């Protein structure tokens, strides 16, 4: 980005008249957006019960006039690793509620946390969000079998979003992005207690006067820390020995319990 | 106070888990049962994914049965040969159960199947126990001595082929019902996360006519090894044993069991059985309630293999 700016400057210097005309015609104000994470790794420890993640960012080359009018808006998204998901629907059979129909979706973000400067409807037209697939309701969720009935797919897609919101994995914070100065902003996103581990992607979208200008992204690794990670790895990579260990621990606990609380 | 369960991948309250373990331990000490049939439903009520509740329950059963088993091993009050035959059947049943478990999980019917099995089994066993203990209480009030079945009585089981001699039990019976009983309990162990003592003990006494002095020891012998096998196979195929969860439950459980055993000595046999029957019926009713009452949401999400996300 800096290199691009220098090149542009050189061009303007070499061809003043042409360059100025070009800049005015096409790039009156080539705004840019940058974000930085205070950490690129978040550890989940034994007492993890959700957390707030703060992302700082800056709008470069902001037009002072638009800035004064407060017509710059920022939407920050933290997207969890994509996974396939099966959505099932219960129906009443013989008086019992039983899973009957199901729909499989590919590449569903496991979590999706959004922070915005204002309410979505005050920032841009709905069609802009659709184009950018921005916001939990506009995320494109791809069914594994596209030949299924569109009505059914729509129903299960809606249910998937609703379930994700209900478990706190898809969340929205209106006003979660605040401008600290003319150019600097801060976004507060929430990490749910059940936030999935893996590589998350933070994306920031800049809007000017309701028009999308620029997007940037950064990566964030969420991982289980020390002890939890060790256990999880052990359970997955050495599943058999993990089972043997679990059995040994149970026998040891039973035996110690007998010694400590001897009753016969 | 939260504790992160690394396999279930969620936070739970450690005090609630300890209390749960202690309460079940208390009851299991009082009634002399493993408590797996209480732990697994309680974990499911506490929103632990059923697949993890079952595998972790099987692991917890080992701890609660082990100290009791040690006492029986020491006293020699078990039929090693009978226990081994039950165990052989148990391993076959448990292996079959694990396959059924994975299959049901993939088609999204595991939770239903677990609940149904619990409702049917606990409902039946609870009702039978209730009838039996109420009759016993009534008879003892009338002053009449409880009518015991003659031990020499033979039933259809004794007419089956492939007979085998079990010296410690003074039995000469076909191995078919022994292996079948073991296999049935093994199957339940891997699908329900129970030890199966609540079925094994009456079956040994009433069906096979095993002398009561070796019944508990033999049953515990089979339960420990089948639960151990089930835990290892669940861990290997499904990675659903949450050792942190299991350990917290075990600690609460072994402590609670000691107090339960003391409390149990103060109550009479029939009363104790009537209480246990009530408890078993209550758990069955609670699970049935969830099956028949419209859930808050009709939709649920799972991973592609049916596992939690």
What ranges of chain B have pLDDT less than 50 throughout 5 or more consecutive residues? 146-152
Number of strands of chain A: 13
Low-confidence region ranges of chain A: 1-25
- What spatial order of strands do you see in the largest sheet of chain A? 2-13-12-4-7-9
Helix content of chain B: over 70%
Using a beta-carbon cutoff below 8 angstroms, give the protein chain pair with the largest interface and the number of residues from each chain.
Answer: A-B, 64 and 62 residues
Shape of chain B: globular
Number of domains of chain A: 2
Structure summary, number of beta strands of chain B: 5
- Count of discrete alpha- or pi-helical segments spanning 4 or more residues of chain B: 10
Counting DSSP H or I runs of 4 or more residues, the number of helices of chain A is 8
Please give the order of strands in the largest beta sheet of chain B. 1-2
Q: Tell me the strand percentage band of chain A.
A: 35-45%
